[in-house]
Amino acid sequence: MATVLYPGSFDPLHLGHIDVIEQSVALFGKVIVGVMHNPTKPSGMFSLAQRKDMIRASISYLPSVKVMAFEGLAVDAVKQVKAAFIVKGLRTGGDFEVEQQMAHTNHAVSGVRTVYLPCKPALVSISSRFIREIAQYGGDVTSLVPAPVAAELAKLFPGTPLPATRAASPEPAPEHL
Ligand code: PNS
To answer: What does pTM read for this prediction?
Structure first.
């Protein structure tokens, strides 16, 4: 069993992220979800603290997952929590290009390795950016995000549909995705 760090901006968390967390638990055991700033995405919709709270509420059924917010470098977070390596999810070829560059750079400056996990095919189109855009215009994102995230988006953008009253659970992805 290893402890791994899954860093990301999670602005907000969506079902693709949950898939990577669940895969990481099954493969490695203990997962630390690291909520971090992405310097290429400077203006976040939610604060790091809000993102952390939404993730905690969404993965409460996974006791071996801890959620923490970090400032600074992902490799420093790895060392701080004594993780064995970084885990990242891959959706598309575009993701691979970016992640490969980050993985090589992180390894070059610290020796920390990165492992990629492929997202479930049904979830590869989900992105936090599209979720933010749809919610801002009052669209329905309840099939793309866990219920606690849909509830926060509905608070931020009145008119955005509320989640159905189902608890956070490891249910499979919606069939239409
Ligand atoms: O979910 P994202 O936005 O793809 O996550 C990117 C994130 C936050 C993991 C990345 O920007 C990051 O590692 N930020 C911390 C700063 C850092 O370590 N930069 C060096 C990159 S080689």
So the answer is: 0.91
Q: Which strands, in side-by-side order, build the sheet including 2-8? A: 65-69, 29-35, 2-8, 85-90, 114-118
Quote the CA–CA distance of 75 and 84 in Å, as a whole number.
11
Distance 37 CA to ligand 1 centre (A): 7
What tokens appear for 165 in the block?
Answer: 């009253």
pLDDT tens profile 5-64: 999 999 999 999 999 999 999 999 999 999 998 888 877 899 999 999 999 999 999 999
Superfamily of domain 2-124: HUPs (3.40.50.620)
Selected catalytic residue, list 17, 88, 120, 132: 17
